[in-house]
Design brief:
Blueprint: H1 3-26, H2 34-50, E1 74-76, E2 86-87, H3 90-104, E3 111-118, E4 121-128, E5 131-137, E6 143-145, H4 148-152, E7 169-177, H5 180-192, H6 201-209, H7 214-219, E8 223-233, H8 241-250, E9 260-263, H9 265-278, E10 286-293, H10 296-302, E11 304-305, E12 308-309, E13 312-316, E14 320-333, E15 339-350, E16 353-359, H11 363-368, E17 372-373, E18 376-381, E19 388-392, E20 402-403, E21 417-419, E22 426-428, H12 435-446, H13 458-466, H14 481-485, H15 492-505, H16 510-516, H17 524-534, H18 537-542, H19 545-549, H20 556-567, H21 569-580, E23 601-605, H22 613-622, E24 626-628, E25 637-640, H23 646-654, E26 657-660, H24 661-671
Parallel strand pairs: 2-13, 23-24, 23-25, 25-26
Antiparallel strand pairs: 1-6, 3-9, 3-10, 4-5, 4-7, 7-8, 10-13, 11-12, 14-15, 14-18, 15-16, 17-20, 18-19, 21-22
Helix pairs in contact: 1-2, 12-13, 16-17
The structure holds 2-(butylsulfanyl)adenosine (IVH).
């Protein structure tokens, strides 16, 4: 075949595949069998493999997941991504409709588009001449994260628009979600592998989209429903929201099939009722419905209040409640020894899941709600929060109901329980002698924002501690292939992967290391301040409580816990061992109160030629500056690279000082 005929064949195959995908995903009406589809797909893959120069980004083969990123870059939304006001009652919905009538001086019924409110993650998809070029999260509404490569892996995100009538620049907005069945299957798999479970489909979707490695995203069952547009250039915009949705469908996007156009607010309430009834049968989770004024002219006249449009409202479903019996209460021991009373319930089905545990928070809550073992209780599960006991049905309290008492000894290690006067929290005094605290400390050490040990899930940590293979974080690094592959449910390959991940984690930063130690009250931000202030471990070991308190953001409580931690011998030993096994970090540039850019806030925008965003940020932070995501009156300087957008405009409006890349390089040179 000549190159020309290969090119033509490739194009034809791509067209065919896109067409089949559209029939399969958008119309739910496939025209060929899966086997036939696979054959066509494989032919394209093989042709592309033999002719890599012909691969284009919009090819359907390019969904498998690109190489991992080291960090996400930020994307400024040209048009902010807004949120919605909520209504919980019919009266609030009527008030919404009345406000609109008053503002528009209209006394006839209005046309609304009624849509399910999906419980996923809002995204923006940018198309140039019909090709998907960039995708971003909503972020704070002004600035989101560039997740293009992850979105590319979702089968229902068109890489190339269908037909011809689309605008030259188009930004589509929608919700990425994980279907209920996919979520259950993913958690089942995680459970088998002893990994952490996702609390609900929304968290699972968010976690999957915010993966630096798109190959992981590609394996997750994600889908997209589109519900609106942002930038729309090069073509006249239709006159109603519903026509926009129709256009989106023609161009290959999936729009929720339950959407209805109605006249009058009472019909909206009928829609709410209808969707409420079929909610549990829907294959995706929703947390309410949304009503939007259909006419775009009217939307424009209504405008916005702060971050939400006046022309739309989210009518939320109430948090689902159920009644069950509290059979027992157990006390869980956390990383810092804190005891949390957990209710063991007679299993009950609430909003899609079976609930058998609920948090009782602490003993003050137990007393305030007057909860006894044996009580009939109302429990509630809302969104991603852990189920909780809302109230007790007192008249159903049986005669044998038992008062809940704080144990005197730790249920795990039998050390004394201590409760400081006036504090709601009681703690086990066993410290790292307590295996529950040890487990939690090691889980924290391995977590993503700490040492980021991939594959070391909660279940595995528990297994390792229970088998007495590890007692502290340093022991992780002396584990052998034999020990690991001897564990139940651990294949040799996974064992080797874990050893590789442990090896990889040895290269870290001083701040991450400090955070990973799990010092009480020392979160990520404090760990960063400590790392920057002291620069190395030795100085930190020598610091007194008074020294520590001089650092910005470090108060007396944090200083007390940090000083105590570094003075304890067993902590010193664990740290020494961690260094001996090879944990290391690049030299942290020490900063103190005299740092030249202390109290200065920078915003970076556009593309810099000589630095990556991360590098520029690190340089600034090492000089004591804060680097923020959005411009405000408090911003000291905005550094502007190529193709800067709305942040530059905002800086100009607010009169904030602006530096181009050359000025920025000169400025850094002066200071370093
Ligand atoms: S419209 C200006 N429509 O709800 C209108 N949002 O609270 C902004 N959402 O960030 C969004 N389903 O993540 C719209 N049918 C729907 C939606 C929807 C879910 C989410 C979206 C948004 C949040 C706003």
């Amino acid at each position: 075949m000549t190159e020309k005929s290969i090119r033509e064949r490739i194009e034809q195959l791509r067209k065919e595949i896109n067409e089949h995908n559209y029939h399969y995903y958008v119309l739910s009406d496939p025209v060929i069998s899966d086997a036939e589809f696979d054959r066509v797909f494989r032919e394209l893959q093989e042709l592309e493999k033999a002719n890599p120069q012909l691969i284009t980004l919009d090819s359907p083969t390019q969904r498998v997941g690109a190489k991992p990123l080291s960090a996400f870059t930020q994307v400024t939304h040209q048009i902010p991504m807004l949120s919605l006001d909520n209504a919980f009652t019919d009266a609030e919905v009527h008030a919404f409709d009345k406000r609109i009538h008053d503002r528009l001086h209209i006394n006839t019924e209005l046309e609304y588009v009624c849509e399910p409110k999906l419980d996923g993650l809002a995204v923006s998809l940018h198309y140039e001449d019909g090709i998907f070029v960039q995708g971003a999260t909503r972020g704070d509404g002004e600035t989101g994260e560039d997740i293009t490569e992850n979105l590319r892996t979702i089968a229902t995100v068109p890489l190339k628009l269908r037909g011809k009538g689309y605008p030259s620049t188009l930004e589509v907005r929608g919700e990425v979600y994980m279907p209920k069945a996919g979520f259950l299957a993913l958690n089942k798999k995680a459970e088998i592998h002893g990994e952490k479970l996702f609390a609900n489909p929304r968290n699972a979707a968010a976690g999957s989209l915010r993966q630096l490695d798109p190959r992981i995203t590609a394996k997750r069952p994600l889908a997209l429903f589109c519900y609106g547009i942002g930038v729309y250039k090069g073509k006249d915009i239709p006159s109603t929201h519903n026509e926009i949705l129709k256009e989106l469908k023609e161009w290959g996007f999936i729009v929720n099939p339950e959407i209805e156009v109605v006249t009058g607010i009472d019909k909206c309430l009928k829609f709410y009722e209808r969707i409420g009834k079929i909610r549990s049968e829907l294959v995706y989770e929703i947390d309410g419905v949304v009503y939007k004024v259909n006419q775009l002219k009217e939307q424009e006249r209504l405008g916005f209040v702060s971050r939400a449009p006046r022309w739309a409202v989210a009518h939320k479903f109430p948090a689902e409640q159920a009644t069950t019996v509290l059979e027992d209460v157990e006390f869980q021991v956390g990383r810092t020894g804190a005891l949390t009373p957990v209710a063991r319930l007679k299993p009950v089905f609430v909003s899609g899941v079976t609930v058998s545990n609920a948090t009782l928070h602490n003993m003050d809550e137990v007393r305030r709600k007057d909860i006894y073992i044996g009580d009939t209780v109302i429990i509630q599960r809302a969104g991603d929060v852990i189920p909780e006991v809302v109230e007790v049905i007192k008249k159903l309290r049986p005669a044998h109901a038992k008062k809940i008492n704080l144990p005197k000894d730790c249920p795990v290690c039998h050390s004394k329980i201590e409760q400081i006067e006036g504090e709601a929290i009681a703690r086990c005094s066993g410290g790292l002698y307590c295996s529950a605290q040890r487990k939690e400390a090691i889980k924290h050490f391995a977590s993503r924002r700490a040492m980021d040990i991939e594959g070391l899930g909660d279940k595995l940590v528990e297994q390792l501690v229970d088998a007495d293979l590890i007692k502290n974080p340093a022991d992780l690094y002396t584990l052998t292939l034999d020990q690991l592959s001897g564990l139940e449910r651990m294949a040799e390959k996974s064992a080797q992967n874990l050893l590789d991940a442990l090896e990889k984690s040895k290269k870290t930063t001083f701040a991450r290391f400090l955070y990973a130690l799990g010092i009480r009250e020392v979160g990520e931000a404090t760990a960063k301040s400590l790392a920057r202030h002291y620069g190395d471990l030795e100085s930190l070991f020598n610091a007194t409580q008074e020294d520590l308190q001089t650092i910005r953001d470090v108060g007396p409580v944090v200083a007390k816990h940090a000083a105590m931690f570094f003075s304890e011998n067993h902590n010193k030993k664990v740290i020494e061992k961690l260094l001996t096994v090879g944990i290391h970090w690049p030299k942290t540039i020490k900063s103190d109160a005299n740092l030249p850019l202390k109290d200065k806030t920078f915003v970076l925008t556009g593309t810099l030629q000589d630095f990556s965003r991360e590098e520029a940020k690190e340089k600034l932070e090492n000089l004591g500056a804060k680097v923020a995501g959005s411009v405000s009156a408090k911003t000291s300087y905005v550094v502007v690279g190529a193709d800067a957008g709305s942040k530059l405009k905002k800086a100009q409006e607010l009169g904030v000082s602006i530096m181009d890349e050359k000025a920025f390089s000169d400025f850094l040179r002066e200071l370093t």
